[in-house]
Structures are given as C-alpha cells and as structure tokens.
Amino acid sequence: MKSVVEKTELDSIASSPLRYRRPWELLWGNISKGNVCVAGDALHPMTPDLGQGGCSALEDGVVLARCLAEALSKPAGEEINEGEEHKRIEMGLKIFAQRRRWRSFDLITTAYMVGFLQQSSGMIMNFLREKFFSRFFPGMLLRKAGAALVSSKSSSYFRESKILRKMTQDVEMKEQPVPCNSVTSSSSSTLHHLKEIASLIETGAYDREARRILRAIRLTMALRRKLKVSVLSSFLSFALAPGSEVLTRLSSYLPKEDEQEMEIDTATSAAQPPAKHSLPELEIYCYLLVLIFLIDQKKYDEAKACSSASIARLKNLNRRTLDVLASRLYFYYSLCYELTGNLAEVRSNLLALHRIATLRHDELGQETLLNLLLRNYLHYNLYDQAEKLRSKAPRFEAHSNQQARNGTFCRYLFYLGKIRTIQLEYTDAKECLLQAARKAPVAALGFRVQCNKWAIIVRLLLGEIPERTVFMQKGMEKALRPYFELTNAVFIGDLELFRSVAEKFSSTFSSDRANNLIVRLRHNVIRTGLRNISISYSRISLADVAKKLRLDSVADAESIVAKAIRDGAIDATLDHSNQCMLSKETGDIYSTTEPQTAFNSRIAFCLNMHNEAVRALRFPPNSHKEKESAEKRRERQQQEQELAKHIAEEDDDEF
Amino acid sequence: MDPQLTEVSQLFERFKAAFVRKDFDTCTNFLSQLKVLLTKFVSLPPLFENTPNAVNELLLAGEIYEHAVVLSVKIEDQDAFERDFFQLKPYYTDVGSRLPLSQQEYLILGLNLLRLLVQNRIAEFHTELELLSATALENPCIKHAVELEQSFMEGAYNRVLGARQTAPHETYVYFTDLLAKTVRDEIAGCSEKAYNYLAINDARQMLLFSSDQELFEYCKEVSVQVTSIISIKCEFFFKGFGKQRLFRLVPNDCRSILSRR
C-alpha cells in the first residue's frame, strides 16, 4: 500500500475542496417543485466522514421509487387522465421530500460533527477522541448508517436468505447426535461440518453457483486431517440413498473399523430424517472425499480403484456445476497413479477426458487436464510431445487471475518454463519460471523451491548471476545450497571447481532432472573465466589462458577465444604468430548500448507488472491454494494454518 | 502368418546380400518391397496387436528398419534417414520392454544425434538427449555425439575436426564430413573477428586444408580477397555473415613488415 502511494505521480492526484449543504437550509429549502425533485448529492451534499454520501443517494432512489409507485398505483378499474397523473406525481414527490428531509439533515450534521471531532488537533480534542469517542463511535455510526436500511424496507432478500440459513441450521440441530464420549463428539463435529458442506453443495447445485461448491471444497480441505472411517461411513449413509450401488461401492473401499463405533453411528444415523434423493454433485463429492481419505491413509491401490470408478461415472454426467468437483477428481486420479508409479497408464484416459472437457466447454476441466497431461509427459521426459500438446490446446488467459485459477496457472507456467529450457529458449523460460515462482502462494514451499531451482539454472545459462538473496529466501536455504555452490563456480569461472561441484551434488541434480542442463553450463563457466582474464590482462599468452581455464590444449584455447570474440563476450584480438591474446581498452561503458539494454529490460518488466496489476485489480490475490510437491507434509501443515486463518476472517458471502 | 514371415525374411536376406555387395540400387528396391510386405503384419506399430508371432515379427521389422537407416546414410539421403528413423523409434521406446536389446540401437541413436547437430537443430538435439537414460549416455557412440556438440558450443573447433579420427563406426564418417564443412564456416567467421592479420600457412592449418590452392578457392567462395603487400587495404564480405571488416591474409615472408591496424 505504501509503495502504491509512494509511486503515484504528483500530477495524477487531484484535490478539490469539501462541500456540504448547511442542514438548516434543507429544512426550509425546496426539495420538490411541481414534477421535479432533487435527490442524492443534489439534495444532501455532505462531508465524506461518514461514508454515507453514496449510500444515502441509493436510499433516495429506493424511496423515490416507492413513493412514485404508491402515488401512481391505480385502484382497480379506474383510469387516470393526464391532469390527475401530474397531480399524483406532485403528491408523490412531496411525500418523498418529507421522508428524506430529516434523514438528510441527520446525515449531514453527523458527518460534519464526525469530521470535526476526528480531524481536530487540539490537545483536549485528541484526549477526548482517544479515550471516549473511539469506544462507542463506530457502533453508533454503523447503526445510523444501517437504520435507514431497515426502515426503508429494502432488505427483503437479506431477510429471506437469513431465514433459509436458519432453516438449514435448525435441521442440522435436530440431527446433532448425542455425544457419548469425547471421541465421538469430535468426530460428530466433523460429521456436522461435512453435513454443512453437503447442504452447501446442494444449494450451490440448485442455484447453479460454482462459488458455493468452491467454498465447500475449501472447507473440506480444512477438515482433511480429521477424517476417520466412522465419520466417512456415517456421512456416506447420510448423503447417498441407502442401498444404492454407489454407497456399496464406496463403503467397500473404506477399511472396516471398530464394532463399537459402528453401533453408535448406526444409532445416530437412524435418528436422521431419510436422505433426499442424491444429487450427482453429492455423489461425486462423496467419491472425492473417500479418495482424499484413502490417499491420506496411503492406501494407494484402493485409491486407484476408487478414482477409476469415479472417472467412469463422471464421463456419463454432464453438468456444469460438477466442473469444480470434477477437476479436483482428475487431479487426485492422476496423483494416485503417480504415487504408484503407473503414470503412463492414465495418459490415454486423460487425453480422452480432455477431449470431452473441450466438447463441453468446461474451461476449468480443460486447464486442469492440460496441466495433468503436461506433468505426465514431463515425468517421462517427453518434452517433444508435451510441446506439441501445449501448442495445440486452447488456453484461457482471461480467467487466469481468478482465485480458482491461480493454482492451475502457476503450474502451467512451471511446465512451460521447463519445456522452454530444454528447447534452449532461455529468455522465455526465465520469464515463465520467475512468474510461476512469484505467483505461487507462500504456503506452496516445495513448488516454489522447484521453480527457483530451474530459474537459477536458466539465469546461469543466460549468462546472468542470480543475487545472493535468491538463495537466502526463507525455508529454501538448504534446498538451494547445491545451486548456490554451482553459481559460485560459474561466477568465479573455474572449470575445476565446477566439475567438483557437479560431481558432489550429482544425485540432487539428477533427482531434479537438471543434469543435462548442468552440463550445458560448462560453456558459461569458460566464458566467465575468459571474461575475467580479458579484463585483467592486456596481453596474455594463449598457453597461460589454457592453463588458467584448465583447458586441455592451446589449440582449444585459441578457437574458444576466437568464438568468444565473435560472440561479443570479450573485446580482444588474437595474434596467431605470437600466440597471445590482446585485450582492447574498455572504453566508457555508457557509450555502448549496455545501459540501454539494462534499462530496456527494467522498463519492460515494470510495464508488464502494470498491465497485470490492472488486469488483476478486481480480484485480490488469495491465500489459499493446494499444491503438490516434494515436501508435501510441511507444505500441507503450513497450508492448514493458512486455511484456518482464511476461514476465520472470511466474509459471509451468502449475502 | 508364418508363410508371410518366411517370405519377408527371405527378401531380407537378399537385401542384406546386396548391401554387402554395395549394390545400393537393388537395396532400395528390396527395401520398398519389404516395407509394403510389413504393412500386412498387425503386430507392428501403430496397431500393436498381440498376435502369437508378435515378437518375431517385431524383431524382424526392427532389423529391417535399422538396415534401412544405415542404407540411407550410405546413399547420403538425409530425408530418408529421418523417415526411417522415425519409423524405427517406436521399436525402441514403446516395444523396448518386450524385445531384447538390439546391438545397433545406440549406434543408430548416436547417428541421429549427429544428424541433428549437422542440421543445426540444437533444440531437438537436446530434447532427444533428455530421453536417453544414464546407461545410454555411457555408450561410446552416444558419448561421441554429445562431446562433439559440447565442443561445437564451446568453440573448440579443432576438437571437432579431430573427431573424424575417433569416430566409433564407419557410418559416422559421412556426418562428420558434413560437420567439418559447417565448422569451417564457423572458424572463418571467428577468425574474421578475432585476428587482425593471419599468415596463409596458419590459415590453411586452421581451416584444415591440405594446400594453398584449396585455401584460395575457399576464399573465393566466401569472397575473401587476398592481397599482396602492395595494395593498401582489402575489404571483404563474408557471404551470409554480412559484416565488413578489414582483414588481411598476408603472404608468409611479409608478415613481419606489416604493422597492426
């Protein structure tokens, strides 16, 4: 926030004086004349201290509409002629004026007083303000602001939805099982939450609001740790029609548990009202829940079976409200196959699903599946095919800043960056990887570490040296240590050191699949070394160059230096007969184009950021995302904390 | 299936005989006939059906394509090489688990890498490299290609030119010759920038020509003008490099007299 203010240019700030109408002028002035009236700021300009200028204008609109409607309402069968209509309008406006007069008076006065109190700087005022007013002011002001709301009866929708919520809560109250012991009570609260989520999904499905289903999923993730078999089986019997094929199938995946607990739950489930006919959304949600549970319990084979069954079921359903749940299912489907090492099996399935998603215009599904497919290909190093798929598949840039899409976009950028790196397009790769690292939420530590690792290599390949702060980021020091030493070797330009570092950490590099890229770095090491030599010596024999760079022969050195000169890396000439290298005097660097290129890259970056900020303005960055990575445990714990915080401060978006 | 299989193997034997005789025309004829016969087998890619004779058929087809690849090198047809290699690839990747490892696999993979390098398709070179396992990278054929690429990237062109001697197989000679030509152009480009003056002897050595005459012909090809000491300056353009720079090729006995620019 501060930096926004700091960076704003002075001439883009406009200042205008505050205006308000004196309240007593309202009392004896004209508000309406004939069939004309004033409303909004024309009626009651006020100082901005209460924040009710615009709000009261809205109120005016509503009251005006009501008055006019009342005035013009025809008793049954009667006709109104022109003259009478005019009179009625006049009457209506007079009533409007009467209703708004005192309200505007009230608002203007209060706004002025508030402004006076808040901005006065005398000692007494300050003291009074801090000690007394701050305690009851906000409540009073809110009540003032909301008073009109209730009085003008514009909240019918507000009340209706409140009633609905109350109803569902009542229903749930009745179903609350009697806690027998502490274990059951905690699991019953989880069950309670799950049932809330189920009702949320139902309302979302009926109203076709994907937001609710998204919220349901978010709440589920918070409950993930608390899931137990008993909870799950009771939830399943609640949500799904008893005796249905789905119920039996899902129950078969869950391991059998203690007899005693089962009895308690059957007692409670008997007390529940019979479940409504199960929505497909609920069904898929149950699949998802069971799948998550199985994966968390590391029962990968059952998870595989469950996910394949769910995918088969999904293929038959075609509802847009299912998209959010479906994309989650695809993700877990691919995950459990990956955890058992059989990723190649799902490839054809994923491709078929992608085709289906495209046919149904299911954008979220398309994006998720594209990411999963790219991950699949990259897992097996099939960069060529990954690129072919990616270039042909449709992308949806417009939505990439929305909350739900941020995760998929980050993943996509990461995979794209990897592909570009292998294809030697380092500039594009660097942009993608750095963007992915920046957009990823703080909780996704493992993912950011991977992005950073690749970004470091790409920057080294481009010839830049990443700053030390990159390696010192919180939580990443240990993981990035090998890369730090590698950067050191490249920076110094010592081939021997480079070789030893590459050998020392070869296992880390091969697990990151960066081995071949490290080999490519050798060339950069030589260049840097050569550059250092050329700066330090005005004249040096090629034999010495070969020795310093630890090259094998003088002839090698000669051709390498020649190529470096041709590529513009160093500024020198060779003397073949004397076998030496002569450096040219480096003139004023500002006379070359280097400052220009440096500025250019910075300007491009700032402009890019500006464009992205403008695009993202309406959707504030979120703090919740789920990622999978090498360090799942730690990341998930951090995420849990974050989610708890997020939900605690989340606004009620039912209204 | 069996009579078809025997027919194909017989034709294949004749093909191999012609190959040994270096009768490349008959070879190409036989090859096209073989390819037509191979379409009758359903166990081959892209169908991959599981017939009882599948393994034999796959083995045979794999061998045929390998020979096709080597033949294309002999007749110096790079397009044919590419086509046959792409047809051969599924045999290594998808079916590899079912078939025993072919001796020629690494040889052919190395040849492919070299071909990509010669055609300057470095991105594809690296993509192919990613697909190779660690054991594959230890193989001399593949190692040779990888090291060549490294030397090429670093600029140690003398190593590239010297690689001709270290080729692991005689089929590699064709590509290394092509590479030599590319390298020569690169050396010339680098020398243009790096040297103020260069003795003719040294130039000849660097560009690996055996006589002065060849050097002058090459220079004419790339429009370098050789001056004698009398003329004041010489300019030259490198075709395709498009840069103009003053550069002198000096006759041997006069180099000590000339001063540097």
What does this protein structure show overall?
The complex is a heterodimer of chains A (655) and B (261). By secondary structure, chain A is mainly α. Among the domains of chain A are: 21-74 and 82-119, no CATH class; 442-533, no CATH class; 537-587, Orthogonal Bundle (Arc Repressor Mutant, subunit A). Helix content of chain A is 69%, strand content 2%. Chain A has helices at 2-7, 23-28, 53-72, 82-119, 123-151, 156-175, 182-207, 210-223, 229-239, 245-253, 259-271, 280-296, 300-316, 323-339, 343-359, 363-379, 383-392, 406-422, 426-439, 445-462, 468-471, 477-492, 495-504, 506-511, 515-536, 542-548, 554-567, 594-616, 632-648; strands at residues 32-33, 36-37, 539-541, 572-575, 580-583. Chain A has a three-stranded antiparallel sheet. A two-stranded antiparallel sheet of chain A has the order 1-2. In chain A, helix 13 packs antiparallel against helix 14 (323-339) and helix 16 (363-379) runs antiparallel to helix 17. The longest helix of chain A has 38 residues, at 82-119. The radius of gyration of chain A is 34 Å and the shape is extended. Residues 149-161, 166-183, 258-276, 622-630 and 650-655 of chain A have low confidence and may be disordered. Chain B is mostly helical. Chain B has a two-stranded parallel ribbon. Chain B has a two-stranded antiparallel ribbon with strand order 2-3. In chain B, strand 2 (235-237) and strand 3 (244-246) form a beta hairpin. Chain B starts with a helix and ends in an 11-residue tail after the last strand. The interface between A and B is medium-sized, with 34 and 31 residues. Chain A: This is 26S proteasome non-ATPase regulatory subunit 3. Chain A: Residues 410-588 form the PCI domain. Chain A: Acts as a regulatory subunit of the 26 proteasome which is involved in the ATP-dependent degradation of ubiquitinated proteins. Chain A: GO terms for molecular function: enzyme regulator activity; FAD binding. Chain A: It holds the Pfam family Rpn3_C.
